[in-house]
Amino acid sequence: MSVLHSKKILLAVSAGIAAYKAAFLVRGLIKKGAEVKVIMTPEAQNFVTPLTLSTLSKNPVEWEFFGDKGDWNNHVEYALWADYMLVAPCTANTLSHMADGTCDNLVLATYLSAKCPVYFAPAMDLDMYKHPSTLENISKLESFGNICIPAEAGELASGLVGEGRMAEPENIIDFLERTIAATLPLYGKKVVVSAGPTYENLDPVRFIGNYSSGKMGFEIAKAAADLGAKVTLVSGPSHESVMGYPIERIDVVSARDMYNAMHANFADANVVVMSAAVADYRPKETAEQKIKKENDDNLIIELVKNPDILKSLGEIKTHQLLVGFALETNNEEEYAKKKLAKKNLDFIVLNSMQDKEAGFQKNTNKITIIDKDLSMQQFEAKSKADVAKDILNVILNKL
To answer: What residues does the DNA/pantothenate metabolism flavoprotein C-terminal domain cover (predicted)?
Structure first.
C-alpha cells in the first residue's frame, strides 16, 4: 500500500500546456488509494476540461468563488479538507502570485488558507524557469515551508529543449510518496506482529485451537504500516486481510511454525508485538489417519507443552521493544503483571473476558496497558482499529 492510501489530496491546476497532465496525475493518485479533489484557475479550462477531471476524481471540479447557482465555493473548506495540497502545473504567473500573496482566484485563496503541506510543480518555458525572479519566487515559497517538485529537462512547448517542463505524473507521485514516507514516525523501523490463533493437529481433519480471529493483530499491523514502518505480520489461520498494505504476511498454522517465523524475523526488528493467541499445548502424537469413533466412551489424548514464544524472545532481546498481550478471565491484573515480568516485556496489553466489548472475534476491544514499572493506563472501549492506534502511540512514546 502506498503512503498515499486514504490521504486527501487537493490538486490545484493552473493555466499552462502541462495542465493536460493533470488527468494522468488524478488517475495515478487514485490508483494509489488517495481521495482527490480538483480546483482550477479559470484559464486552466482552456487546457483541460473540468468534466475530464471531475470524471476521473469522482468529485466536482470548481474554478470560481461562486457556482452556477450562486452558491459559494468555500476555499477555507477545501484547505481544511486536504491532507496535502498539490499545485500542478504551477505556472510562472501562479508561482509569482503565491510568493507575493496575491489572492484573485479560487486556487490562490485556497493556497493562502492551507494549513497542510503544500507541494508545487513548476511548469514553464526554459528562459522563464531560469529567470532570476522565478528562482527567487521558488526560493521564497520554500522558505514558507512549501515543497518544490523540480521541473524536468526535455522538449518544451516552444520547441526549445531544457529545464522547465512539469515533472511527469508518475515522478510527481513518486516524489510525494518518498517525501511523505520520510516524515512518518516509524519510517525506517521494522515492526513484527503476530496475530490469530494457532492450530495443533490431532489428525488430518481435527485440531486443538481457540476462537481468535486475528482482528486485533491485523489492525496493529495496518496501523504500524500507516506510520511508515516496514511490517512483517506472522498470522495463524485467519480470514482477516491486509490487502492493499505494504505488509509482508507470513502464514503459519502451529505454535512451532509461529515460533520459527517469529525468531527468523526478530534479530533486525525494532518493535515486536505478540498479539497472537498461541495454543499452550499440543497433542504428543498426531494421528496420520482420521481417528475413528470406537466403542469406548472416552478418548484420552496426551498433551505436551508448546514452546513459549514470547518468553523465548524476551530472553534474547537486545534493542527490541517487546510487547505482549494478556487475555484473562479472572485475577486479570495479577496475572498480567506476572507475565510482564516473567517474559521481560516493555509493556503488556491486558483485556478481560469479563468485558463484553473485549475478547475474540469482536470488532471492539477494551484494554489496559501495564508498563514494566507497573504504571497502568486504562482506555475506554473502542474499535480495534482505534485500539491499535492507542497501542502504537504508546510504542512511539517509548521509541
So the answer is: 186-397
Q: Write the burial class of residue 62 (CB in 10 Å: 0-12 exposed, 13-18 middle, 19+ buried).
A: buried
Q: Would you say residue 68 has pLDDT above 70? A: no
Distance CA 233, CA 224 (A): 11
3-state secondary structure of 338: helix
Pairing of strands 147-148, 118-122: parallel
Averaged pLDDT score across all residues of the chain: 91
4 is in an annotated binding site: no
User: Which one from 93, 171, 210, 270 is the annotated catalytic residue?
Assistant: 210
Q: Quick: pLDDT tens for 268-317.
A: 999 999 999 999 888 888 777 887 877 667 878 888 899 999 999 999 99
**59 counts as catalytic:** no
Against a cut of 0.70, is the pTM above it?
Answer: yes
Question: What percent of the chain has pLDDT above 70?
Answer: 96
CA distances (Å), origin 150, targets 12, 102, 138, 198, 389: 17, 23, 10, 51, 35
Residue bearing cell 503512503:
3
Mean pLDDT, to the nearest integer, of 374-378? 93
Calculate the dihedral angle through the C-alpha atoms of 366, 390, 234, 272, rounding to the nearest 10 degrees.
-120
Is 343 annotated to bind ligand?
Answer: yes
- DSSP-derived secondary structure letter, 307: P
What residue type is 287 in one-letter code? A
3-state class (DSSP) for residue 165: strand
User: Is 39 flagged in the annotation as binding?
Assistant: no
Cell of residue 237, nine digits: 489461520
Q: What pLDDT is attached to residue 175?
A: 97
Dihedral sign from CA coordinates of 56, 58, 59, 62: positive
Domains in the chain: ranges and CATH: 8-183 (3.40.50.1950), 190-397 (3.40.50.10300)
